[in-house]
Amino acid sequence: MVTLADVARRAGVSKSTASRALSDGRVSAATREHVLRIAAELHYVASPAAVSLATGRTGTIGAIVPAFDTWYTATLIRGIAHAALRHDFDLLLFELGEHGEHRDRAFDHFRRRRHVDAVFSANFALTRREVGALRDLGIPVGAIGGPTPGIRTWCLDDEAAGRLATQHLLGRGHRDILFAGGRPEEPLAMYVAEEARHAGYLSALRSAGLAPRPRRALLPTVAAAKEDAAAAFAADDRPRAVVAASDEIAMGYVLAAREAGLSVPADVSVVGVDDHPHAAAFDLTTVQQDPAEQGRLLIDWLAGEIDEPSGERQHTALAPVLVARGSVGPAPAA
Amino acid sequence: MVTLADVARRAGVSKSTASRALSDGRVSAATREHVLRIAAELHYVASPAAVSLATGRTGTIGAIVPAFDTWYTATLIRGIAHAALRHDFDLLLFELGEHGEHRDRAFDHFRRRRHVDAVFSANFALTRREVGALRDLGIPVGAIGGPTPGIRTWCLDDEAAGRLATQHLLGRGHRDILFAGGRPEEPLAMYVAEEARHAGYLSALRSAGLAPRPRRALLPTVAAAKEDAAAAFAADDRPRAVVAASDEIAMGYVLAAREAGLSVPADVSVVGVDDHPHAAAFDLTTVQQDPAEQGRLLIDWLAGEIDEPSGERQHTALAPVLVARGSVGPAPAA
DNA sequence: GCCGCCCGTGCAACCGGTTCCACTGGTACC
DNA sequence: GGTACCAGTGGAACCGGTTGCACGGGCGGC
């Protein structure tokens, strides 16, 4: 392995001069060029461990994420990995486990191994304790998720998304609209988001002077939604219009509708949230969000913060966009 | 930040003794216990940079993965993250980009920053050059994917999976079976896998003395499959039985069938491969694989290899399992 | 009772960089 | 012409661990 000393010796300068030439210390232009050429010839690469030991910088960003075999988290991480690479940071992944079983270890982990320059959490709601643990690390901290006091955060404006979806149905004349999704007792951000989307739904109905239906709470999976929908469609007052808290839930409702012999959108209109990659094949009208873009925003900010901390803590709510497809039709004649 | 010197001073011993007490060097039991207590009191944690500089070990495993907003890759990474945590390794993620645009950088990256104890690639086919680049790192290397000379690999026995799916249809009396999927010109493992599944399909038909239909090549997404299926179902000799190279393709076929007014399985039988989380909601008969388990196997092996290299290089083909649901029916009467 | 071995410990070198400080030589300014 | 300053460079300390080697003391074997 070729070291800085090798480069220095070969270039006929001291280690310090070689080091300065390779970073951006004060050296004459001629020396710098010479050292750089030698370094290139020797294929010299600085040892990250040594750099890290000397500078305290690690060139790595830590991620704390829940089990990410969901479209949302996986796409988010894709955006994050991409942006991190652009800033020349490595990405260190800590996963909370399928049922959050490693959650306790996560925060201790980054404290113990102080080998990241910044940390973020994504897609789950931090407890006050956890917020404190992250801030105690003394490095920049961000999060993808709902507004969280003390941390810079980004996420879709979920309330606006719920409102937008509901208003879209109202605009087609629907007056009796069901909201499907959410298990508020669970602390995952997924449910925090669904809660906010539900609030948007309520607000839209209230503005229109309409009464909500009782909310149908369920796990945010296609399978769970389908089962729930089957029950809903079997009832006497089966829903004619549904705001689903996510596209996966919407897909479950569409599948169940077809199985119940109902046509979408003639017999029932459905709006989702996400613009999941499968949404187009379901011809699903939905409220779009772009997790990869959210990840980019987060990393760009963290990279800047590592350079010179601003200590900002505010929340950024990203504007939702409605994507109209074929799963919404006019309300049935009264 | 409390250092080893602090612990040593407080314990009244030298740095070396403290170090040995904390690892497993030779120290008297009394000294060890004493040092450990002091270290705990002081919440001492070794600096990973210093350890890494001194030992060459980093406690990190590097991952090279394609854009992982697919179910397969995301689930694989979940299994890997879980297993790595169990072995007390960190996971460093390198993502190839949505269209493989960072692929060239990936291999150089791990060479330059020599800060991982092992590397693996997942879910794409390595070129001979890339295999060489990985092996040149001088650390254990593994891969999730097809057999690759020179590297220890794991993956589903894709040929057996294709055969199993086809035989399942043959067993219900089908004689005219279509295979949907695969774009062999692309180098992603996805297509390597589809190629092998197609080979299994051909082999099953050959054994039964039947002729294959011309293969329908398409991108492995629900949307692409749906579009392709719409064309297939509009033809005069529309297929009555389909082996899809993946569940997402199968879902596209099911959606298209319904839209064409065809009933599954009465008018057309469909078998997928994967057991995707949405498969149950589609009532899809499929050949199961468990990416998380594959990830576990990989990491367990790598962790052992880091400890004491065996230099093994063989391929492990994992046996497929058929999950029978409702998307397959008997062949139509001749 | 003496020799030799081994256990437990400390000293110091080392891993591979960065950076403070001192030094030199040249230039600008008075 | 002398002084002040500054650019450019080298020496050496330092980051925080690990580990080879030397040393002292206790104990077993003859």
UniProtKB/TrEMBL annotation, chains A, B:
Cited PANTHER family: HTH-TYPE TRANSCRIPTIONAL REGULATOR GALS, LACI-RELATED TRANSCRIPTIONAL REPRESSOR
Higher taxonomy: Bacteria, Bacillati, Actinomycetota, Actinomycetes, Micrococcales
Domain HTH lacI-type: 2-55
One Gene Ontology term of the molecular function aspect: DNA binding
Stored InterPro entries: HTH_LacI, LacI/GalR-like_sensor, Lambda_DNA-bd_dom_sf, Peripla_BP_I
Family matches, as Pfam families: LacI, Peripla_BP_3
Keyword list, A-Z: DNA-binding, Transcription, Transcription regulation
UniProt cross-references to CDD domains, sorted A to Z: HTH_LacI (cd01392), PBP1_LacI_sugar_binding-like (cd06267)
Name recorded for this polypeptide: LacI family DNA-binding transcriptional regulator
Keyword flag Transcription regulation: yes
